[in-house]
């Protein structure tokens, strides 16, 4: 994309830029320039510490708008509600750089500057661009804050790897302004699509990835699921205009645009997260949930002492069956059946026994199907007797075909 040419997604769009107090704040001048050249309107909210790194005069001149720092601006009547009007004004709220301090405040709901106050009033997508020293970025507190914010629907750009202000080399650099500009354009494009489409006004719940069942603090039972199929279905549903909640087990995949992701680890956690969204119009259970979990979990690492051990397992809760049992008249519930033997018979039994509308059958040992990021070959079976066999296709195309058939 050429930033000097007005973008169909950014021309006239309203960008609210939150700048917090890190050395990377100087890069926001270039970011504002890119947005302005694309025809966007830009307003800036800063933390007091951010003014140590770049002046409000600089960002105000480039944005052609007043820069807001305190919750109560001094030079505007009715200023005590400015955080509300800014939150309603924005089409996207970008916090760049987002320091460890600011992420902590956003995660806790603190409200001590215009930047944090607007975060509580904004109704638009919020994009967080962390920037800090590497050890701060990978600290458990920062990771927990980012996970909390993601679970609430915030979008996060991973920090880049490179030379840091401390002189160290590592992950923690603010993404380049051009990358942030392009990500904002993608977010606004997804938001525009979400207003129309065959699933507009519908809520879609998708589960994806594996679960992990702890044996001790360092070991667990899991499976080979990469989460790709579920993520592609979530992405396809968002493109069709749905409000999408993605409940995801551990995976390295990035959250699809326009999708709210809730991270879980165990089957029990996935059950709680899915149940919290059981009012969805369309429920698509793609996750490879563990069938069994250790009966007891050791509090410390089990040491290897040369003796054999027996691991006692007990069944996990059947999430799909629980949702099927409580199915409401307006809901469509779709399950996945990963079968190596007697696939059709097992899938049809699962379809009926769990009160589903559709079951998607695939075989993990079949070439080009099952786990992994590549292709899949599935058969769609409805509770009305419809059977649709799809050829081997890339998983993004499989996702499109599934939603085209069931929605």
Briefly characterize the structure.
The protein has 13 helices and 22 strands. It has helices spanning 28-37, 56-63, 82-89, 100-108, 114-121, 134-137, 140-151, 177-194, 228-239, 267-275, 319-325, 343-353, 395-406, and strands at 14-19, 41-46, 67-68, 92-98, 126-130, 155-156, 160-163, 169-173, 203-208, 213-214, 220-221, 243-248, 259-263, 282-285, 292-294, 313-315, 332-338, 358-362, 375-376, 379-382, 387-389, 393-394.
Would you mind describing this structure in some detail?
- With 407 residues, the protein is α/β, with parallel strands linked by helices.
- It has two domains: 179 residues, Rossmann fold; 209 residues, Rossmann fold, CATH 3.40.50.10300.
- 31% of the residues lie in helices and 22% in strands.
- The chain contains 13 helices and 22 strands.
- The strands form six sheets. The protein has an eight-stranded mixed β-sheet, sandwiched between helices. A six-stranded parallel β-sheet has the order 3-2-1-4-5-6, sandwiched between helices. Strands 7-8 form a two-stranded antiparallel sheet.
- β7 and β8 form a beta hairpin.
- It is globular and about 70 Å long.
Look at the structure and name the CATH superfamily of the largest domain: CoaB-like
Average of per-residue pLDDT values: 89
The CATH top-level class label of the largest domain: Alpha Beta
Could you say what the CATH architecture of the largest domain is?
Answer: 3-Layer(aba) Sandwich
Q: Which structural class best describes the helix and strand composition?
A: alpha/beta
Unreliable sequence segments: 1-8
Contiguous helical run count: 13
Strand-residue fraction?
Answer: 15-25%
Q: At the third CATH level, what is the topology name of the largest domain? A: Rossmann fold
Distance between the termini: 33 Å
Q: What's the total count of β strands? A: 22
Number of domains as seen in the coordinates: 2
General form: globular
Nearest-angstrom radius of gyration?
24 Å
Main β-sheet, spatial strand arrangement: 13-12-9-14-17-18-20-21
Largest sheet entry: 8 strands, mixed
Helix content: 25-40%
